[in-house]
Amino acid sequence: MKLLILDAGHCLSLALAREANRRSDVELVIEPGLALSPARLAEVRPDALVIPPLSWPLAADPAAVTAHAEAVEACMAACRAEGVPLAWCVSDQLYEDGFESPIDEHVIPEPRDDGLRRLVATGDRVRAELPRHLIVRLGPLFALEGSHAWLGELLDTLVDGGDLRAEADVVFCPTSADAVAMALIGMLQQQGCGADAWGSYHLAGTEPVSAYTFVSMVRTQLATRLEGRGEEVVLGGAKALSHHHDQPLRRVLNCRRVLDVFGVHQKPWRLEVGRMLDAWCLARDDDAGVAGEGPAT
Question: Which residue numbers delimit the RmlD-like substrate binding domain (predicted)?
């Protein structure tokens, strides 16, 4: 299976590259940005085009949101012309006001924010004009490297002594970029084998948690690991914010359909964070070893 991936520096694109390197049945062609001409798509002739999400669109510059939506629509038109399926990942923030219960796939977001409404309009066009599509709604992505790699940014801030500020009253399901990459490849392979299960799916980690609890847990696990390694690092703190005083805003995705259709199980975010922190510590050892190497005498 050949996949064309856009936005090479995105944390999900890097995760897809790592997953493809572990396998012999996937070939990736990765483009640096979101711009894609029909000629380039015809040249590569992938089995599917994958577009990573615009993470945290509520906090993004309006021009960036518009540019992302326009790029997705241009890619959709190229896919329609060339007969190539499209997999577009989107942020759970499209459900701006959340829901008291887990959100099913058939619930189309109806946000008030103009930027989010623009992204929803793009999704409506994809559903109407390109039958062979996957719109995959994700919880907040985390990874160690790449753009939008939330966990890597948290660790850098903590080690530099900076404080992390996060909402204590916004509940969501943090989602590992590595887990999404593995799931996407599996879903697209099943589609290539005739599953014919196009449409919208939710893909997020297990265990809903507040943003503040998530960053606090990351800080605690990081402190434990550094202490166990004998490192004395004064980490930044975690401070709770409160924006929804009446009741917490819950943005929890129901991921039952992706399990029923494709057999994809959600990965617990705590285990994924722990695994990534172990990898971060190993990389720290490697960096220290390189820094300690001096000229031969």
Answer: 63-279
End-to-end CA distance of the chain: 52
Alpha carbon distance 89, 102 (integer Å): 19
Alpha carbon 15 to its chain centroid, in Å, reads 10
Whether the model clears a pTM of 0.85, i.e. scores above it, the answer is yes
- Return the structure tokens found at 35: 């711009």
Q: Is the pLDDT of residue 296 over 80?
A: no
Rounded CA-CA distance 35/37 in Å is 7
186: region left, alpha or beta (phi > 0 left; psi from -120 to 50 alpha)? alpha
- Paired tokens of 97: 């006001």
Residue pointed to by tokens 């917490």: 248
Contact 12, 89 (CB under 8 A): yes
Model confidence at 19: pLDDT above 70: yes
Environment class of residue 81 by beta-carbon count within 10 Å: exposed (0-12), middle (13-18) or buried (19+)? exposed
Cβ-based neighbours of 223, under 8 Å, separated by 6 or more = 235
In a 10 Å sphere around its CB, with 0-12 CB exposed, 13-18 middle and 19+ buried, how is residue 197 labelled? middle
